[in-house]
Amino acid sequence: GVGLAVQMILFHSNIAYTVIIGWALFYLFMPLSTIPKVPWDTCHGWWNTRFCYEADDWASEAEFQLNRSISMNMSKSPVEEYWDNRVLQLTDGLENAGGMQWELVGFVALAWLLIYVVVWRGLQNSGKIIWVTAMFPYMMLIILFVRAISLPGAKDGIYFYLKPDFSRLADPITWLDGGSQVFYSYGLGFGTLFALGSYNKFHHNCYR
């Protein structure tokens, strides 16, 4: 019963996470046609609306009066519009489902293919691939970090990130969210640790 439940959890979670990998592949390959710039940096794409604004520009056309004392602005950044109108191509409601996003279908299929290539011969034969998949995210994070600290306002961003707000420690929601994230990170219900541990000898010193 427990083993079957674990498999069902993995089956459903893999479907969700593979879609996220498909989004990542979309962002990895689609900007190659616009090098050296990225397509979500400007408001000149076919997916942009008149509400789009770049950097510190203010889209006054997006502003309207709620009443005589309150003014609301509907401006959106090119990053938001690229995600909503280009990647997801969101419609105006559930009654208008829209068409199939074949680009995303292709990238999700590519993600499933990559997963199959990694696991089809078993974990014991995927050691070299794991070296790549384990190191690549850290290499990319280092590259992104170096790039980020070279941008204007990086000092303010680092200060905001490292400045603690000790008043949040008195909020029980903080501890609830932190505890749930710890258990989620361990993945106790996914069976991954059990599967990896099954390849060790029974008396293997895992604390070494």
UniProtKB/TrEMBL annotation:
Membrane topology: Multi-pass membrane protein
InterPro entries in the cross-refs: Na/ntran_symport (IPR000175), SNS_sf (IPR037272)
PROSITE patterns per UniProt: NA_NEUROTRAN_SYMP_3
Keyword terms: Cell membrane, Disulfide bond, Glycoprotein, Membrane, Metal-binding, Neurotransmitter transport, Sodium, Symport, Transmembrane, Transmembrane helix, Transport
Record's GO cellular component terms: plasma membrane
Entry's Gene Ontology molecular function annotations: metal ion binding; monoamine transmembrane transporter activity; sodium:chloride symporter activity
Presence of the UniProt keyword Membrane in the record: yes
Pfam hit, one: SNF
Protein name according to UniProt: Sodium-and chloride-dependent creatine transporter 1
Top-level division of the source organism's lineage: Eukaryota
Compartments where located: Cell membrane
Family assignment from sequence similarity: Belongs to the sodium:neurotransmitter symporter (SNF) (TC 2.A.22) family.
Protein residues bound to Na(+): S185
Membrane-spanning residues: 6-29, 104-123, 129-149
Cystine pairings recorded for this chain: C43-C52
GO biological process: amino acid transport; catecholamine uptake; neurotransmitter transport
Protein source organism: Notodromas monacha
